[in-house]
Design brief:
heterodimer, A: 117 residues, B: 185 residues, mainly alpha, Arc Repressor Mutant, subunit A, 9 helices
């Protein structure tokens, strides 16, 4: 585990490469920031053909960004799984349940909803 | 009433308020009772009830939120006003200031033992709980419940334009939280 530690900077090789390439990549809309934005946008809408090509080219060139699309997808999957997981009772920690008062109130309410015979 | 506790936990995880969650359970079970004829048994009763509860939660947010506003995009922001929160990640040339893969190794693999998986789920939940209310609501409606952006924005009481900003922000915060608190193998 990595409790609360700041995230370290990227590897030196990346920084050296970016120092040379960055102005050109930025001009072409192919910098890492653009790739990050496109990966994020991709989670909410279909990218245009131009955007897809730009993202593709960037991911081919940049080893550091290559895992970004998978990470965004995985975060969505994990968030869903975590919320499902949350509804399972966990005997080790106990779990939240309806109060007796609420249970009785809801049962009475449902009885009142039942068709009178 | 055997599904009531699961529904209650579901509602509580979404609205974060015990009384509201209890009311939602009552609304959900009442609605289910009224349209029990539409339950065809293709899914389990629990799944069917959870589906109804999702709509009840969305209704709850719709009723409780203010008129959609662009101000909401900045309401829960601890970053400097007007500053793109992604600035924390990139330098002025658009290159990474931090290692984007550090601490996220577990996103690429599935933990094989249940203890690791449970721990991973605990961290994800912790980081989601760390999000400010509005970000968490919108993120949950979009990423967990799978609503499209306009519907999630409407339910969370923000404009569609703000929703895009807030979703970016919530994903970035969740990502940074996971990196800082560590899901390293």
């Amino acid at each position: 585990m990595n409790h609360g530690k700041p995230v370290p900077p990227p590897p030196v090789t990346y920084r050296m490469m970016q120092a040379v390439m960055c102005p050109i990549l930025k001009m072409l809309g192919l910098c890492c920031r653009s790739a990050f934005h496109l990966c994020n946008e991709r989670m909410d809408r279909e990218l245009t053909r131009g955007e897809s090509i730009r993202l593709h080219i960037h991911l081919m060139m940049c080893g550091l960004c290559r895992r970004l699309p998978g990470q965004f997808e995985a975060m969505r999957t994990l968030a869903r799984a975590a919320c499902e997981h949350e509804h399972e009772p966990d005997p080790a920690y106990g779990y939240e349940s309806l109060s007796e008062e609420a249970r009785t109130r809801i049962a009475k309410h449902l009885e009142n909803q039942a068709p009178k015979t | 009433m055997q599904h009531a506790d699961a529904l209650y936990r579901f509602a509580l995880s979404r609205v974060g308020d015990h009384h509201a969650a209890e009311d939602l359970v009552q609304d959900c079970l009442t609605a289910a009772w009224r349209r029990i004829d539409s339950f065809d048994g293709r899914s389990s009763l629990g799944t069917w009830l959870t589906g109804i509860m999702k709509f009840k939660v969305i209704d709850h947010f719709r009723k409780s939120k203010r008129t959609p506003t662009d101000q909401a995009a900045h309401a829960d922001d601890e970053d400097e006003p007007g500053r793109d929160p992604v600035d924390r990640l990139f330098n002025s040339q658009g290159a990474w200031k931090v290692d984007p893969n550090h601490g996220l190794e577990m996103l690429a693999t599935s933990p094989d033992d249940s203890a690791s998986r449970n721990e991973l789920m605990e961290w994800v939940r912790f980081c989601m709980d760390e999000l400010p209310d509005r970000l968490r609501t919108l993120f949950t409606l979009r990423e967990v419940d799978g609503l499209d952006v306009p519907s999630a924005a409407s339910a969370a009481g923000v404009t569609k334009g703000s929703a895009a900003v807030l979703l970016t922000r919530s994903r970035q915060r969740l990502r940074l939280c996971l990196q800082e608190h560590g899901i390293r193998s």
